[in-house]
User: What shape does this take?
Amino acid sequence: MKTKVLSAVSAVAILSATFASAEPSAEVLHYWTSGGEAKSVAVLQKEFADNGGTWTDMPVAGGGGDAAMTALRARVLSGNAPTAVQLKGPAIQEWYEEGVLADISDVAEAENWAKVLPASIADHMKCEGNWCAAPVNVHRVDWIWANADVLKANDIEMPTTWDEFNAAAEKLQAAGVIPLAHGGQAWQDATVFEAVALGILGPDGFRKAFVELDEATLTSDEMKAVFDQMRKMRGYVDENFPGRDWNLATAMVMNGEAAFQIMGDWAKGEFLAAGKAPGEDFLCASTPGDGFLYNVDSFAMFDVDGDDKKAGQQLLAKLIVGKNFQKVFNLNKGSIPARTDVALDEFDQCADLSAKDMQASSDSGALLPSYAHGMALRGAQAGAITDVVTSHFNSDMSSEDAVQQLLTAVQNSM
Ligand code: BGC
Assistant: This one.
């Protein structure tokens, strides 16, 4: 006990010593460029500046972060890594293995992260037992968003099974409404696919397929049923879907052009930024089926020279897990805090549902990492799955062929 206290005290001392000797600065690479996202990252920029930090913004547009990850690789390869990077899931450990991440254990210990973060989240932030990333939030991926007026006008309830979803979609289509707002980008296809897969395979089947890469599950009849449902989904999107950004798809739900969107709760950040109210203008529900797909945004610090940058990394890490930041940021972002001790009374009904379902799923073993958002698998494996999902969605590939291709893709990615 004594040593623990001592080490926490000395960590604080190291921190303040660093702050005293250099003015914190940070170049921050992130992909938060939509309306709701920009509002959210501005909260961090402000807190950083209020605490004496100088922020150099490096936003790389592109939902899901694929473009940001390409930009990151180029920077690291040229020996000029950014100070802090929006990075998550196993990609954190992949970068650590390349020897380019900074250890932020001193901040984590001084700030008692082990106490305030759930173990499942903390595990993602560690590299060989040391803290190498700071978590911002918990996004849920398996959400369905709807325009409240459009559902009402067409006498449709939020669907609780995929059959109900299909019946609603067909009714909407007959009434001239686009059932599903979607953007044809690989990560968005993967987002819809994993929500459908969770519903049809169930939490255990999802884990077997997308965490354990179990070959029998990847080629099972249930997986064929997942692709059958994806074929139906393809019929529910409008013809202008290719390439559309996710936030433009959200806007289609907002303005009543489309009824539903299947997207993580960063979509709620868009609704809120546009002044829309949950339960009135838009509705939220988990996609049909049990379980909870989590997607935790976090920042990793790269190994950089310069006391100002090192001080910037320490300040950023401290602020990110700070109680006030976790509240204000997540109110804007659509997610819920990663910290367990932030009161949710200022949050809305969708956030309450997320927190409640997350706890229940954690208790029942149905809390699962999102494969589509880089939480479950290494990049090569997730990419291999997404390639099949996208080529199935954009062709007339049969479900039988799709599961065979899934198996081959996964085997080749190992
Ligand atoms: C990230 C979110 C982001 C979304 C759209 C997700 O993978 O976790 O923070 O808002 O992509 O870019």
Residues 9-140+296-349 form a domain with the D-Maltodextrin-Binding Protein; domain 2 fold (CATH 3.40.190.10). The chain has 19 helices and 15 strands. Residues 186-210 form the longest helix (25 residues). The CA atoms of residues 181 and 249 lie 5 Å apart.
